[in-house]
Write a structure and sequence with these properties.
The chain has 165 residues and is an all-alpha fold. The protein has helices at 8-12, 15-24, 41-48, 87-96, 101-105, 108-122, 130-135, 137-146, 154-161; strands at residues 29-30, 35-36. Helix 6 (108-122) runs antiparallel to helix 8 and helix 8 packs across helix 9 (154-161). The longest helix is centred in the C-terminal third of the chain and has 15 residues, at 108-122.
């Protein structure tokens, strides 16, 4: 089975390929990234529960860029998806203090304020480029505020969240 990632067709609608992978080849190789795609839920659970067999360190698609991400003191910084226990759990605890169901449940008025502000930015034009003027900035603004950063930091947060290929 050929599993091209990334590809425009896969980005458009990945579900037929996921279904085919589940039926024919549940762990197809992604040649471009020297990685594998795990298509079945049971396999994902098994892998997640056995980090001694399946390490995440250095295996994410963006891992080749990890050497470039250093703190001011020269300490290597890994994302959650590039970490194994116990480091993964330590980092996850930091984010779940603010990123939790209660926070999102109570964030409706804040989200509405950002939605309104973004719409106000283009409503007088009579049109907008939906992705760049609304869909892309909204998550960054929401996460920035939830995490306690100023709105001006939203673009940086979104860049950090993107996987570089």
């Amino acid at each position: 089975m050929k599993f091209d990632y990334p590809s425009p067709d896969l980005a458009e609608c990945p579900y037929p390929l996921y279904k085919q992978a589940q039926a024919e080849c549940p762990v197809p190789k992604i040649p471009l990234h020297d990685a594998h795609f795990i298509a079945r839920y049971e396999d994902v659970v098994f892998i997640a529960q056995n980090p001694q067999l399946f390490s995440s360190v250095g295996r994410s698609i963006g891992a080749k860029f990890v050497e470039a991400r250093k703190t001011g003191g020269g300490v290597e910084v890994r994302s959650l998806v590039e970490s194994d226990p116990p480091v993964h759990l330590e980092h996850r605890k930091i984010s779940t203090r603010r990123l939790n169901p209660r926070t999102f449940r109570d964030s409706g008025p804040m989200v509405l304020r950002h939605v309104t502000s973004l719409i106000d930015g283009f409503i007088d034009n009579g049109y907008c480029e939906f992705v760049s003027e609304f869909a892309e900035p909204l998550p960054g603004l929401v996460v920035a505020e939830i995490m306690g950063f100023p709105p001006s930091f939203a673009d940086q947060l979104m860049r950090w969240g993107q996987i570089e290929i």
